[in-house]
Design a protein that fits this description.
The complex is a heterodimer of chains A (89) and B (450). Chain A has a domain at 23-77: 2-Layer Sandwich (Alpha-Beta Plaits), CATH 3.30.70. Chain A has 2 helices and 7 strands. Chain A has helices spanning 33-37, 63-67; strands at 2-5, 8-14, 21-23, 43-46, 49-52, 73-75, 83-86. In chain A, the strands form 3 sheets. Chain A has a 3-stranded antiparallel sheet, with no helix packed on it. The two termini of chain A are 20 Å apart. Chain B is α/β, with parallel strands linked by helices and 450 residues long. Chain B folds into 2 domains: 8-72 and 109-180 and 297-378, FAD/NAD(P)-binding domain (3-Layer(bba) Sandwich); 75-107 and 184-294, 2-Layer Sandwich (D-Amino Acid Oxidase, Chain A, domain 2). Chain B has helices at 21-30, 56-61, 64-68, 111-124, 171-174, 198-204, 256-270, 272-278, 301-304, 331-351, 356-368, 372-376, 380-390, 393-403, 411-428, 432-449, and strands spanning 8-15, 35-38, 53-55, 75-77, 79-86, 89-98, 106-108, 128-130, 135-141, 144-150, 155-163, 186-196, 208-213, 230-234, 238-246, 282-294, 309-310, 313-315. The chains are: A mainly beta (89), B alpha/beta (450).
Chain lengths: 89, 450
């Protein structure tokens, strides 16, 4: 099963991706760099820590992983055949 | 020594069926090696996002099967049009980089059909393609790569693992060979796929693509304005407008989530080239996508010094930092490095020696390639970013011409490497000249008659 979102036409997400990005709250300082680079609005800051709201619009670009100065974000690919896909990339 | 129970064994496992992986897999299979090509997505190329015009030097000097084959091409790009924008108006247009048809500077293509075509070629040669399969980890024995572990936990042994995992590559990090790229070298780009009738793309753009350069206050290019541009890649019956920005600029992370869409909206509502010539012909916004790519990885010592091989492993393409700082397009370097890696893997299997010492031949050959190191060390784009701060309009015009226009073929830029590579190939096989001409004609005809 794949889903699409009105805000992001031409893109699908194949179900089963799960929680492939995790935050180490011990390391996170709440600097919000992840919020600033995430075009999918996956992150929010709550109690001075980054928190993943939802990965359902995530295009797996890993900008958050690259930009995190504390190395608090653990990026892994979702399981094979799941997650973001597009015919128009 | 840790004894690992393997579920399967191959001579070579290639991880990633993007642009480089299938090229390496095909060459290994052609040489008779048992070769497995792993791809995490359901169909090769469907996770790859790119406004993509593959530069012509990749086709001329890359794998012969691509040159002689008929890959799916969306539009031959024969001209790069550079527009300088002020107050929403184009005040100068540089068309100095134009080739007579059918000679193309590059070929626009969608990633999914192109990567699928490459993967089919690898399969045709005897490689096994396994899609929807993530290479989640490497099998390590005493620090040596001995294979990969799939997302389902299957242990696949390999004499050589060729890592073609792309920008967000995690496998060679898990192998202890590399670190993730520094954020200063990573660009986040956002692009749209917009449908337009082929006749409209033909009349508005022809066989050209367009770049728009402007000072930061125009708010059309990168949010911080330093060196990126607004671009329009043209396809058969669609266009890819887009823009990008580095994750860290001058020590800070800009609010890209807000700025990239804002700059796009600003460009499309104020620049008359868009509002007058392009917007009325757009049928619909078909897709919106984004991704990151390494651009200055070759200019930053920390990234440049990371190894691209180790015991039992060769790393190619974007995963090795082989982008192209000047063009922002790593496909030719993915092809060159895939070709070299396959040669080294074949020699390694034949010698029964998979050590880093033996595989260091890969680094020697990468360094001897006329394009790879040259293109990742290119500082023109970096210099452009500084130039935009200088406010010298005449100098900006000159640099745009020198970098994105005809100056791209100056001796010190691409002219020298292209000349040297051409001479080397012609010396080896004079008939390659006809092969090149025939390729340009055939690609153009394929595109016209599709």
């Amino acid at each position: 099963m794949a889903k699409t979102f009105e805000k992001f036409p031409g893109v699908e997400w194949v179900e089963g991706a799960g929680e492939f990005i995790k935050i180490d709250t011990e390391k996170c300082t709440g600097c919000a760099d992840c919020v600033r680079v995430c075009l999918a609005e996956c992150y929010e800051i709550a109690d001075k820590k980054a928190r993943i709201v939802s990965l359902e619009n995530c295009m797996e670009c890993a900008a958050c992983w690259y930009v995190c100065p504390e190395d608090a974000i653990d990026f892994n690919w979702p399981p094979g055949g799941t997650g973001f896909r597009s015919d128009w990339g | 020594m840790i004894a690992v129970m393997l579920d399967e064994e191959y001579d070579v496992v290639v991880v990633g069926a993007g642009f480089g992986g299938p090229v390496a897999a095909k060459k290994c299979a052609d040489a008779g090696l048992s070769t497995l090509l792993l791809e995490k997505s359901g169909v090769p190329g469907e996770k790859v996002v790119s406004g993509l015009v593959i530069p012509m030097y990749g086709f001329l000097f890359g794998p012969e099967f691509i040159r002689k084959g008929n890959p799916p091409i969306e539009r031959p790009i024969c001209s790069v049009v550079n527009r300088l924008v002020k107050d929403g108006e184009v005040y100068d247009t540089d068309r100095s980089l134009t080739m007579p048809k059918p000679i193309a500077l590059g070929y626009a293509t969608y990633c999914k059909p192109f990567c699928t075509w490459l993967a089919e070629e690898a399969v045709e040669a005897g490689a096994e393609l396994r899609t929807s399969t993530l290479a989640a980890d490497v099998i390590l024995e005493n620090g040596r790569v001995k294979g990969v572990v799939t997302g389902e936990g299957k242990m696949i042994g390999a004499k050589i693992v060729i890592d073609a995992g792309g920008t967000q590559n995690t496998l060679s990090i898990k192998a202890g060979l590399r670190e993730k790229f520094v954020a200063e070298a990573i660009e986040l780009y956002m692009l749209w796929d917009m449908e337009m009738a082929k006749e409209d793309v033909d009349s508005v753009f022809g066989n050209s693509m367009e770049f728009f350069h402007a000072y930061p206050e125009e708010r059309i290019g990168a949010p911080l304005g330093y060196g990126s541009t607004f671009y329009i890649f043209t396809y058969r019956d669609s266009i890819h407008p887009g823009l990008g920005q580095f994750l860290i600029s001058e020590g800070k992370t800009p609010n890209l989530a807000k700025l990239l869409p804002e700059y796009f909206e600003h460009f499309t509502s104020t620049v008359t080239r868009w509002t007058r010539d392009i917007a009325p012909r757009i049928k619909r916004r078909r897709a919106l996508m984004w991704d990151v790519c390494p651009i200055y990885a070759g200019l930053l010592p920390r990234t440049r010094q990371m190894p691209y091989y180790g015991d039992g492993m060769l790393i190619i393409g974007d995963a090795a930092g082989f982008e192209a700082a000047a063009f922002g397009d790593g496909v030719p370097n993915a092809w060159f490095s895939a070709d070299i890696a396959a040669d080294v893997a074949v020699a390694s299997v034949s010698a029964g020696d998979y050590s880093a010492y033996f595989l260091s031949r890969y680094e020697e050959l990468v360094r001897a390639n006329p394009f790879i190191i040259h293109t990742i060390s290119d500082t023109r784009r970096w210099n452009m970013r500084n130039l935009l701060k200088s406010r010298d309009m005449a100098e900006l015009k000159r640099r745009v011409r020198d970098h994105w226009g005809i100056g791209a073929f100056r001796w010190g830029n691409m002219g020298g490497p292209v000349y040297r590579a051409s001479m080397a190939m012609i010396k080896e096989k004079p008939s390659v000249l006809f092969e090149w001409l025939e390729m340009f004609q055939r690609y153009f005809r394929n595109w016209q008659t599709k």
